């Protein structure tokens, strides 16, 4: 059987001195070596034709519906934002789910008609199915990876090269992978850097979409002129200061995962003073035990209204009304003009979805 060692030796002999012994090259070789080992363990034959599966249209639609939020943000935010970055690369942008099933592609396919099936929605690019490849290996290894033409396990896939990076949601659960693929030469450093940046931007957008309505969003970086970069740290916290989410870049800048912590244990500034900076220009902030960072604080898009406790008498009446409504018994609120019938009716409506039986006279 054709081994990775034989393949890598042939590759090095072909490239000669162009192969660098740098740390990044060693890490890359190890990632490809492990991917080939997994491909071999899956029982794949390097000379076999790729089998991407033939799922029903309804099955593909189900996979796409499961990741509708990711697809929507990619369609409306990611692709338009990076259109100018992608244009010179002349590569196909691919988005797969966490199982390696292709959900959507953007760009003009440059591949031969016989290869087109692998780039249609529903095509399976998992390592277990088609061996070492950018999408499948990024998902299997849990890290961004570049796979050159002859590093693909299946010989039939060596017409292309590509870079891919995993994508996580606001809870840091794996939801898919983003890839750039082409039949032409793609400079590894540039392509891998681009796909990592786009994957981070997609994760940031998923974080914002999930939590922007009722939470504060603190964006920070080493300089104020790169706060709009995908590589800025993002911490999302409640009005009481508890951090509920953060992107992975925040871990790097802060030296720890801030999720679950209180904000005053993360930054050296009182919560009240920090909240007063919402909507203001960038300001410096000292991270606890770390360096000085430039920050921007965004207030919730829809701040939660403070709950005003009801007087005992009103609370008792509303409670009785809700108990009746729970049993589908219509409620009639009676009283003189100006006694607060409409106010009590509104309180019941806010507290119970079954409000259609409430009337007042």
Relevant terms:
five-stranded antiparallel β-sheet; Beta-Lactamase; 361 residues; globular; disordered C terminus; 3 domains
Describe the structure.
This protein has 361 residues and is of the alpha+beta class. The protein has 3 domains: 4-209, GAF domain (Beta-Lactamase); 213-298, Beta-Lactamase, CATH 3.30.450; 312-360, no CATH class. The protein has 12 helices and 12 strands. It has helices at residues 4-15, 23-41, 57-66, 68-81, 83-86, 127-130, 134-141, 188-211, 248-254, 271-275, 312-326, 341-351; strands at 92-97, 102-106, 145-147, 161-168, 174-182, 216-221, 233-237, 243-246, 283-286, 292-298, 331-333, 358-360. The strands form 3 sheets. The protein has a 5-stranded antiparallel beta sheet with strand order 2-1-5-4-3, sandwiched between helices. Helix 4 crosses helix 8 and helix 11 packs across helix 12. The longest helix is centred in the middle third of the chain and has 24 residues, at 188-211. The protein is globular, with a radius of gyration of 27 Å. It starts with a helix and ends with a strand. The relative contact order is 0.08. The model is unreliable at 16-20 and 353-361 (pLDDT under 50).
